[in-house]
Amino acid sequence: MTATRTPGVPAIDEGSLISTNPATGEEVGRFPVASTDSLTAAVARARDAAAWWAGLGFSGRKQRLLAFRSVLTNRLEELAALMNREGGKPRADALVEAIAAVDHIAWAAQRARKVLGRRRVGSSLLLKEHAAFLEYLPLGVVGVIGPWNYPILTPMGSIAYALAAGNAVVFKPSEYTPAVGQWFVDRFNEVVPEHAVLQIVYGLGDVGAALCRSGVDKIAFTGSTATGKKVMAVAAESLTPVLLECGGKDAMVVAADADLDEAASACVWGGLTNAGQTCVGIERVYVAEPIFDDFLNRVVARAAKLTVGAEPSSDIGPITMPSQIEIIRRHIEDALTRGGRAVLGGAEAVQPPFVNPTILVDVPEDAAAVQEETFGPTLTVTRVRDAAEGVRLANSTGYGLGGAIFSKSQGLNLARQVRSGMTSVNSALTFAGMPALPFGGVGNSGFGRIHGDDGLREFTRPKSIVKRRAPSLLAATTFDRTEKTISQMLRVVRLVHGRSK
Ligand code: NDP
To answer: Which BP terms does GO give this entry (predicted)?
Structure first.
């Protein structure tokens, strides 16, 4: 039965989580809320599945993950339509997100053996007759907790890498996007029907908390910093390791020698794509004095042209989570009260469930719009003396997720000075779509990495094995050693390490 409910507010009814379209309130689907018993059973099934999945080896897993990737690729339009219906995401944004997720699955599947497979490593001074081997073994069962804003790309950053590394996964999607989660988990299970290698559990935050207590071998959490702290506190009870991908307040710094049109285009897209509901979205822009006015005019001209609405073809869709609208409104009003000016949008831009693009200038650095995650289609644009001052201000919040630099001559140098996990030079957000690059933050943005070689290793434990391959040359590690052995040891160590050069 299709009912119309309060737009975007997930409800629980007779044990089912009901997700709704954030613009229309149309019911998108009903999903059984996991009880503690069903969660325990899911983790037990995952444990059995993990042994089978690990036993397939790199090539068996690669073949299945690549088949999963192909199924998703051939049904991208269907997935994008569902993402639009459940999260309000415009079709083009949904496709870009889903394509990036597909690319990550393929990369993780193809790369896993090279990064994690057994290799011989160097021996040591007193143990020359031993061979040393290193490999990265799966942890077992990984619990993945995901947010709603990128309902496939974000969880896949953990899921694909955990699976490629040989783990089974129990996934708890955000209560705002269970249908998208169910859709891709169903596709995986069509390709891998034998065992419960990838399962999904539905519910509110308490189900996420129960997953943290369920005995999984690692929790990969993506969401707000506040919830990340709760996850870590619960995981500490059982010393369950955690990976925390939390919020951000990313800045773009535009140097005087930047290509202004490219910079304005990237700034508007990086700040306003997905209605600004992007963990690595540009929220603050610091612009060198000589080009400030020219740059601002270009940004405003571009942002003013964007279409806002529920249609899949809109540039900017609705705010997915209704409670976020009040935060966006507070940030805008606080900025205006404290001397800021809206050169586009402003307080009247907030028209639930939509927020029109809003560009703020002259906002004090300690205002909420500069310090706190806004998660809406707003940008603060601030005049700075030069790029160095821009970088200093970019580094002045507790977050440290991503960011961007625009400069023709100093890009790489400035990028290295930004205190964050990722920085793009002369583009925005592009690091998120590069499977080879690790993704994650510092400070309030969390720790640990998804994507890249580090993202594969994150879901493993290094296993070190030493195998004796010949009788001891120098019997140092036995009580059979003699004074002669000791003097030989000393001679060898002085020869190798005793000289200063
Ligand atoms: P939340 O922190 O509200 O929720 C994230 C997930 O945690 C949801 O599945 C949520 O379930 C679950 N959860 C809630 N309470 C608990 C709990 N006590 N224990 C365990 N799990 C719990 O974040 P949002 O969904 O609102 O996502 C937006 C945030 O995510 C932003 O801050 C954004 O910056 C960040 N983000 C970070 C990314 C990164 O890679 N660094 C990428 C994308 C987003 P439920 O929804 O049912 O409450």
So the answer is: aldehyde metabolic process
